[in-house]
Write a structure and sequence with these properties.
This protein is α+β, with helices and mostly antiparallel strands. The chain is about 45% helix and about 15% strand. The protein has helices at about 10-40, 45-75, 80, 85-105, 115-120, 135-150, 155-160, 160-170, 170-190, 195-215; strands at about 235, 245-250, 255-260, 265-270, 285, 290, 295-300, 315, 320, 325, 340.
Length: about 350
């Protein structure tokens, strides 16, 4: 969490991550250009640079799209999620260099404005084999630019979390456009089946990974319906919740994180107000629920971030009866204090 806005939230871990990323990008570009020149000595330097930056950007995009579902599958990938913005901005930078060199090489040396030439040089929209693939890449680059430009917390706060999230979900539209851009471009200028094979593998990987992570999480979205008196729902036994951890349940269509800590139980919305991170996969640290994605914190009894922070989440009424945790599915307004349910001394959940 940060009190004020900073261009980059540098810390030792991020510095190491960015150094590794920078070295990896440099090595990839050098290797691609070197091998490309050896295999195809007739290729110009501009062509090798265009392809190196283009393939590098596409590779990084696959990594970016893989991080989210991988974190759903295995928590050990969470450090990658914490630094995903840096990876995404780097990916856009490589795509921008690719697009800039391409625009110059193919459209800047004539009498027509390069951007006009980009959209008018090839008008065979009725032909699949010769469909204009460059405008698809340009459209994807515009989306990636908007995402990179709004990747900072300033835009998340001022656009609001739902709008920011909707904007950044356009990455899947950009990915589809880039797949079309590469496939149509390769079909027109290349005959190497390995290129199409690599792209097909990447597409299968991304789709398969998202489907598997969705299947793995399907149990979380199963609506709890064991109603008891006064409209409360029996969600689990006290000892089903690890100490300083949570059990995630779905009530009235919303995921709720039910935390056990200090001999008490509280329930809050599972969605962090920062980037909709899963609070229920975090833990209570120094008395605060700590989001596993970026470390945003909330008090479990009122769902409010400790001062000077202002983020708030919904809270829910909780009871403990005969070692069972009961939650009212009707949420309170964000930041509403709810008295935690005290775990009776005879309950197994009181043990620490």
């Amino acid at each position: 969490m940060s009190v004020g806005y900073q261009a980059v939230g540098w810390n030792p871990q991020k510095k190491i991550y960015d150094r590794v990323l920078a070295v990896g990008v440099i090595l990839y570009l050098a290797l691609f250009v070197g091998v490309g020149a050896a295999v195809n000595p007739n290729a110009t330097a501009e062509t090798l640079i265009i392809r190196a930056f283009g393939t590098g950007a596409l590779l990084l995009l696959h990594v970016v799209l893989s991080i989210g579902p991988l974190c759903r599958i295995d928590r050990r990938f969470l450090p990658l999620l914490y630094n995903r913005r840096h990876l995404g901005v780097t990916m856009f930078g490589m795509g921008f260099v690719h697009g800039g060199f391409s625009l110059f090489q193919f459209h800047a040396l004539g009498d027509v404005h390069p951007l006009v030439s980009l959209f008018t040089a090839n008008s065979r929209y009725d032909s699949l084999a010769w469909f204009p693939f460059q405008p698809l890449g340009f459209g994807a680059l515009v989306i990636l630019f908007l995402m990179a430009a709004t990747s900072h917390d300033f835009w998340l706060a001022n656009l609001s979390a739902p709008v920011w999230k909707a904007l950044h979900m356009l990455v899947y539209v950009a990915y589809a456009m880039l797949v079309g851009h590469v496939v149509l471009g390769v079909l027109q200028v290349e005959t190497n089946p390995w290129l199409i094979g690599a792209l097909a593998f990447g597409l299968i990987w991304i789709v398969g990974l998202h489907l598997f992570s969705g299947w793995k999480e399907r149990a979380l979205d199963r609506e709890m319906s064991s109603l008891v008196r006064d409209g409360f729902v029996d969600v689990c036994a006290v000892d089903d919740i690890e100490l300083d951890r949570a059990k995630i349940v779905t009530l009235s269509g919303e995921r709720v994180a039910v935390f056990r800590y200090d001999g008490k139980v509280s329930a809050v919305s599972n969605a962090c107000q920062h980037q909709n991170g899963p609070l229920g996969e975090g833990r209570v640290i120094d008395g605060c629920i700590t989001c596993p994605w970026h470390g945003y914190q909330y008090r479990p009894d009122d769902g409010s971030s400790p001062p000077p922070f202002t983020e708030k989440v919904h809270t829910f009424d909780v009871r403990v009866r005969e070692n069972r945790v009961l939650v009212n599915p009707t949420p309170h307004a964000r930041g509403t204090r709810v008295e935690p349910a005290v775990i009776p001394a005879q309950c197994p959940g009181t043990a620490s």
